[in-house]
Target: Glutamate-ammonia-ligase adenylyltransferase
Amino acid sequence: MLRELLGCIGAAPAGLVGDTATDTLDNVGTYRAAGTGTTCTTIETTLKQTYRTLLMRIAAIDLAGTYPENSRRVGQPEVPLGTVTAQLADLADAALTAALAVAIRHVYGDNPVESQLAVIAMGKCGARELNYISDVDVVFVAEPADAAATRVASELIRLGSHCFFEVDAALRPEGKHGALVRTLESHVTYYRRWAETWEFQALLKHRPMTGYLPLGRAYSDVISPLVWQASQRNSFVADVQAMRRRVLENVPEAMKHRELKLGEGGLRDVEFAVQLLQLVHGRYDETLRTPATIDALAALIESGYVGREDGANLIECYEFLRSLEHRLQLQKVKRTHTLPAESDYQTLRWLAHAAGFRGHMTQSSVEKMLDELRKVRLSISSLHHKLFYRPLLDSVVNLSVDTIKLSATAAKEQLRALGYLYPDRAFEHLTALAAGANRKAKIQAMLLPTLMEWLSTTADPDAGLLNYRKLSDAAFDRIWFLRLLRDEGIVGKRLMRILGNSPFAASLIIAAPDIVKQLGDGATGPKLLETKPDTVSTSLVRAASRHDDPDKAIAVARSLRRTELARIAAADLLDLMTVQEVCRSLSLVWDAVLEAALRAEISAALRAENLTTAPAEIAVIGMGRLGGAELGYGSDADVMFVCQPAEGVSDTDAVRWSIGICDRMRKRLAKPSGDPPLDVDLGLRPEGRSGPVVRTLESYRRYYQQWGETWEIQALLRAVWIAGSQQLGERFIAMIDHFRYPDGGVGEKTIREVRRMKARVDNERLPRGADRNTHTKLGRGALTDIEWTTQLLILMHADAIPELRTPATLTALQVVAEHKLVDPEKVQTLIDAWIMATLARNAIVLVRGKRVDQLPQPGPQLAQVAGAAGWNPEDSQEFLEHYLRVTRRARKVVDEVFWGEVISEHDDY
Model:
């Protein structure tokens, strides 16, 4: 091929000392085309025709081997894929050698060639695994890298792209913005100082192709060691994963099933996986330093980094896809890796026949080809996790007799590359889970490759693996646990997402392992949603009431609350509940705990005092977010207690008895435990923290009538009965309606007072050093801004619009929009911000395990918060920018509606 292409242009060695060019035209090197007798157009036409003839010669031999021998035709031996791709790469080498010869003639004429120019092949050409119709990626290195060398390189690209295939130099340092030609020293300086991870991944397939090969080999000698150090970069894993994700995201959804290369279960999946393993282990194992995918996979198998059976299956699948890609390109001699549309049956039929498929009575050749393609894609996807994780388990326990055991050092190196920041600990967890001869260890060894792949997509795989180990220990005596993970894949997938994204939820599940049973799907959908919050509340109160000892009753309530919190958090993390549903469910759990605790205290007091009836009825009034059914994971319970003396009992005695009940209940609930705290806050009662813990209904009425301040009346907007005597609670609510929904609405004086209080909150309540832009409670456009705006609108309009008489922020805002008290579009802006701020606030607790209102700075912890909020952890910056954008718009609405500022109509809401 080289002789034919060089011979057709009358090429001869260019005369560089040490060059590999020969008079017999046997070797690639630096040649010069003949200078007389032919025009530029004639040369290009000759080169194009010669190249196409040679290409079709390869294709003819390849296709002939597709057809089996029969009575009418002598069969041809099948040509291995590796032979075809190598021949195509050799043809590309020959073609660009010829193009370089013409470029040298064009630039230098008959003058001496003063620059040594080496052409470095990259990508599939560099790995000698080229397609029929493909771009050929190149990089140029020259000594000196002068204007003449640049002109030669430019002319080579022009000529090669016109006559043969697209020649692309975009993989050079700095890409298309960088110098086309560099010296060796310049290349080395760039790769040592500024190169990104993807550039080292690209260099894995580099190969001195043609031109002045001594310089090309010198380039390879210096650059190759840098390639094998890339896996030590801090950003290595994230960079590789981001590259793969970008490839998948760039494939339109409608085209994914037609993509042979870029879709899931496609060629790029195999190539990325193999390259990652090469970069991880090639640093120590030089047998892996081979550029071709199939050769590299074979080396990985031989050295034990990939299981033999899995590797063989992967090679078979990869070769099938590459062969199908070749046939697809030969149909129209056009670069493509996209299958024809299903409606284009004739083209599909041609492709199936060219790929060697034959139809029969029950299945056409097209159906057979598409069936095989589906199987191959599924196989690649299922083998993907084994490729990375199965050898890790083999390093702990031999799963098959023909598998070479991966060393502990290599296993830890692989764990680090897969995103584990603490590979020594991760390896210890694997050993603890899977080592041993018992049945459970064997099942764990079967499960862990898949579980670990699911963990790798979470915000914190290290914590996830540790949590799984703890959960496995906690569920050691539960026979169903491993069986469920083995038989219902969705359970394991959901469990790993929870364990790797939320320490808070993980600790709840470890303490209540039976919740894992609810991670599967039932007849009507996810089992997590089969449990209704109202039913949970009733069951919690009933179970606690079976115990006379209030400590035991509250212990039962804690246990059932723990299980319900685990259910809610799991459903939240799996995006099975909306923010509103999460908050309502959390609020109902608190209501039930308070009901159970109050009943237990009253029952114990009656026994202790030998009473048959209680001296007073007690009702618990929910306030704040508890009253609005808008509690988050870390919220306290804001309440007030009201009592009503029994017949014949004085107010003083009734209040004294009720205070004893409520104080003991609060202290018992606040006792330290391993569960999330149960703190009851009475700060919103009359006179605040200095006021009595319990008042009678009449005492409350007198207080609000004579001394109630604006902030206390505003607090009543979210008051609702939640526990204790329902009749008394409803009487209390009816009594306060007169104060919180005054006839005609509040006047300007009250509006000014509410605004004054809000200004004071803004100035005094934000913690020192907090960032107002990212504080989910007190920040700009965050929860407090939206809730105060809503409450001001209720104070102003609830008398005239009864639907506004609701403690729930979002319900009130919807009424505001329906009645057009505020432009509905602006109301939606407030709703969106409330949901986003609540989502973020809950996510912080799911990650931190305690109430923190400030979003973290960009970094690993923000990635965890983003993951807990349902975003991809790698998109944490986008999550933060979305939060800032939504709350910024909400703040403009607050400035207009709450503060009365005039906002330009051009402002963006």
About this structure: Residues 365-394 form the longest helix (30 residues). Residues 686 and 703 are 7 Å apart (CA to CA).
